[in-house]
Design brief:
Helix content is about 15%, strand content about 30%. It has one helix at about 90-100; strands at about 1-5, 5-15, 25-30, 35, 70-75, 80-85. Strand 1 (about 1-5) and strand 2 (about 5-15) form a beta hairpin.
Amino acid sequence: MTSNLGRVSVNVVLPYTGPKYNIRQIADWTLAQGLTLTSDTRLFPEKFSKFLVAPTLDVGIELLPHHKIYWTQDKHAEGGQRLMFEGTMDKTVQYYAKSMNFT
């Protein structure tokens, strides 16, 4: 919190985000107006259950006999190819990625 002659700024530190998003001002407080939210971020955000800014994570998955692994063309991937993985572990990681907001 910072104060400037009767005005207090309320900031939150957002973990697992780049420097651009790390510290965000979320509210102001003045004696005349009380607490005023200044951001779309909640006053007490769920900082540890869901990523607020979607990071890209590398995830290691164990290859089992019923899983399928193959290369596919991808112009956005390094070298023009991406290693793909299909199976129950892939579905599990995709489920977590959707619920926790990561790619």
